[in-house]
From TrEMBL:
The lineage of its organism: Bacteria, Bacillati, Actinomycetota, Actinomycetes, Micromonosporales. Keywords: Membrane, Transmembrane, Transmembrane helix. The chain crosses the membrane at residues 29-53, 73-94, 101-117, 123-141. This is Membrane protein. Pfam families: DUF7144.
Length: 148
């Protein structure tokens, strides 16, 4: 017995639309990256406000910070990076391409700023650097899976 297969009806148009790629389970990692970007941005903004308003809050070894800046300048740096990171995280959750690119750039600058801030807060800066690396991975490798 032979099986007969039916062909799908031919369309009148020569154009065949491309299949939309289906998001995989890795899309959750991008959502994680966007949420972490917003959360780290909020933490960094708070860290910046503390640096601006309470210079004596941070304890530093006699060698000082890696870069020679006072804590008010570091406070402004962290505040600006944090606010941009929060806005970029919202863009990542909305699936915007510009937000993925900006999020990677902000995460790199955040990691570098926390590397220089390491003498003031070693454990916290190390945690933030590790989370920045996770955000960079999520946005660089699986970022396009969140697009609608």
């Amino acid at each position: 017995m032979s099986e007969t297969r039916q062909r799908p009806p031919a369309s009148d148009s020569p154009y065949v639309p491309a299949r939309q790629p289906q998001p995989t389970a890795w899309a959750g990692l991008v959502v994680f990256g966007g949420v972490m970007l917003m959360m780290l941005g909020g933490f960094q903004a708070i860290e910046g406000l503390v640096g601006i308003f309470r210079d004596d809050y941070y304890l530093v070894a006699p060698s000082g910070l890696l870069l020679t800046m006072d804590f008010t300048a570091w406070g402004w740096t962290h505040l600006v990076l944090g606010l941009i990171a929060v806005g970029t995280g919202i863009g990542v959750l909305l699936g915007q391409t510009w937000a993925r690119v900006t999020g990677i750039i902000i995460a790199v600058f955040s990691a570098l700023a926390n590397l220089a801030f390491l003498p003031a807060y070693p454990i916290w800066a190390t945690i933030v650097i590790a989370l920045d690396v996770l955000v960079i991975y999520a946005l660089a490798v699986h970022g396009r899976e969140v697009r609608y």
